[in-house]
Write a structure and sequence with these properties.
alpha+beta; 4-stranded antiparallel β-sheet; 4 strands; 64 residues; single chain
Length: 64
């Protein structure tokens, strides 16, 4: 792990890709990019997590 903020893409509940960034702003940009690149896949989910606190900062699609 190289950063505090992790973005994960899962498809059909299986991990497809993930990355870590030290800057929340950078991680949020990557989150948006990955939603655009992978959001059309069936059952895709993209999640941004603060690894230091364990908090999910945002996820797509919005769970509710």
């Amino acid at each position: 792990m190289t950063g505090r903020y992790r973005v994960t893409v899962t498809v059909q509940s299986r991990p497809l890709m993930h990355g870590w960034w030290g800057s929340e702003a950078t991680a949020r940009r990557k989150f948006t990019t990955w939603v655009g690149e992978h959001g059309s896949r069936p059952s895709a989910r993209v999640t941004l997590t603060d690894e230091e606190t364990g908090e999910t900062l945002t996820e797509w699609p919005d769970p509710g």
